Amino acid sequence: MSHTKPSNGNGPRKTHFHPIETSSRILESTLDSVDSVEQTALEIAERAGFFGTDLEKICIAVHEVVANAIIHGNHFDCHKKIIVTILRSLEQFEVSVWDQGKGFDLESLPDPRSPEVLLLPYGRGVYLARAFMDELYVEAGPANGTTVTMIKHIPLDEPAARRLTLAS
Questions:
Q1: Closest CA to 98 of 58, 41, 138
Q2: What are phi and psi of 117, to 5 degrees?
Q3: Measured between alpha carbons, how far is 151 from 131 in angstroms, rounded to an integer?
Q4: Where are the domains of the chain?
Q5: Gap between the terminal Cα atoms of the chain
Q6: CA angle 149-87-163, nearest 5°?
Q7: Inter-residue contact 137 to 148 (CB < 8 Å)
């Protein structure tokens, strides 16, 4: 599994694909929003041909990043929103989550496997998202805040390619 991200956690990423399905939503900064985004991501990921463990990993990554945006980005501020965009193409499944918080440096997050952090009941969301998705980017948002973009490449073996065609 490769994780493509610039060393400082910011920077350009190249996307040269044509979406065949998109979903964009503006959400309140409440934990109720997490479940609805996770459900939408699940449905689109299934149509992309993911199943089993890969589908579970995608759902966990989406859940963690959206929860982080609400909790750590927007601090449950009812005046701040979360914008989630999910794209599906023949090549990849992409989820972007934008919050209106102060932002964070991806490289400064503590390693959740370190002895100082290992037993804490928090601090694993970004680690899990990085582990479960093929690519993860953290960029300054369009108007403050942070955009976290996660990409999972769609395996183009024969059965998956057939599912993609049928699900379109």
A1: 138
A2: -110, -20
A3: 11
A4: 21-167
A5: 27
A6: 125
A7: yes
Q: Are 25 and 84 in contact (CB under 8 A)?
A: yes
Per-residue pLDDT of the chain (168 residues; tens, 9 = 90+): 333 343 334 444 555 568 899 999 999 999 999 999 999 999 999 999 999 999 999 999 999 999 999 999 999 999 999 999 999 999 999 999 999 998 777 777 767 677 776 666 566 778 899 999 999 999 986 668 899 999 999 987 645 444 444 454
Coil vs helix vs strand at 83: strand
Task: Estimate the crossing angle of helix 52-68 against helix 32-47, to 10 degrees.
Answer: 150
* Residue in this structure with the two tokens 């990409």, named with its chain if needed: 151
Q: What amino acid is encoded at 7 in this protein? A: S
In CATH terms, the superfamily for domain 21-167 is Histidine kinase-like ATPase, C-terminal domain (3.30.565.10)
